[in-house]
Amino acid sequence: MVATSSQLLxxxxxxxxMERASGYDQNNSFFTEDFEELKGAGYxxxxxxxxxxxxxxxxxxxxxxxxRLAYHAGPTAxxxxxxxxxxxxxxxxxxxxxxxxEWMLTETVNNGAVFAAGHAETGNDLPLLLSSxxxxxxxxxxxxxxxxxxxxxxxxWTYLGLHGMDTSDxxxxxxxxxxxxxxxxxSATVDVWDTLGxxxxxxxxxxxxxxxxxxxxxxxxxxxxxxxxxxxxxxxxAWALLGFANIYYGMxxxxxxxxxxxxxxxxxIALTRPMIYHPEVQHEIAEMVMEMEAIQxxxxxxxxxxxxGVDHGPAWGLKIIAAKYRAVNGAWRVIDKCLDLQGGFxxxxxxxxxxxxxxxxxxxxxxxxxxxxxxxxxxTALGINPDEQPRWG
Length: 393
Hints:
Layout: H1 5-8, H2 11-27, H3 32-40, H4 59-72, H5 74-95, H6 102-111, E1 115-118, E2 134-138, E3 141-151, E4 159-166, E5 174-181, E6 187-190, E7 204-214, E8 218-223, H7 231-263, H8 279-308, H9 316-342, H10 353-361, H11 370-382
Parallel strand pairs: 1-4
Antiparallel strand pairs: 2-3, 3-7, 4-5, 5-8, 6-7
Helix pairs in contact: 2-3, 2-4, 4-5, 4-7, 4-8, 5-6, 5-7, 7-8, 7-9, 7-10, 8-9, 9-10, 9-11
């Protein structure tokens, strides 16, 4: 029997995460206590198959748990998610019969390994499919040179999942996906994380200067661009983007609940009853509730389809990107409107509302951004190769 939500993350644990969230944000510090509690509860093993000692939760189950965690502490959920989208991917590949990434799952359970993501690069709007990081083939592995940003879980990761481009054959460039052990010579962390929101993730930069990763930690070598989308690559999209979708949805639900409660006692000189009786307030609440009602079944359906192995063929990328885009944009509209309805006093830090607002704004810049999402979905729907470059005239 798969562990239920109440067994995996207790209300008490979640409430403690919520209580600590403001302090992490104010101090711009990592969610250390949250992380230790979640690890102690076995949460980091949730995606590992039961046969290998984990809890055996699939994508649809994990993202619902992540939604609950995000409701209480969005940055904590986002940080932990960077671990899940590697262990979840490895589990899916393991279930497909490919055991090449089994070591990641056994490392997680037996040695407490923590995996993090290192894909973001300045000037690269196609993270994962292209890279400005150089991957050079050498004896026994690859050397990587470049700079990675937004590397969540920086204080605690054991392996950094990253990618680089091997251009030794200019006519057939390859993307090399690797898992770099912490402390690898030629790698260094640069503390840059002083940001608008999601401060507790401590997503510092990692500089790579010929960092060597041996073959045993090379996850995949695929063609650059959309031509290289295989189960490994599309699996990263599924776990990463559907996780983002649920995290920001959970945050929006929290903000909506806070707003509804505040409006029940919010007054105005011109009114004899609380603001919930104002027709325009009712209208705005209805708009937000209907937005949320549309998001939830969409993201649940796509996650369930992935978990059940539904064959959407080449449309998988379209479906994943569309679900993430609609979810984070809809969640942002709800959260932004909530700040309007709560009024001026909501901007004070003690209210906790402005922190959620700042955290939620970052959802819109998670890959893919608006331009990339529309380009990929549009090309796919029109039957155009996503790698096709525009030509005018």
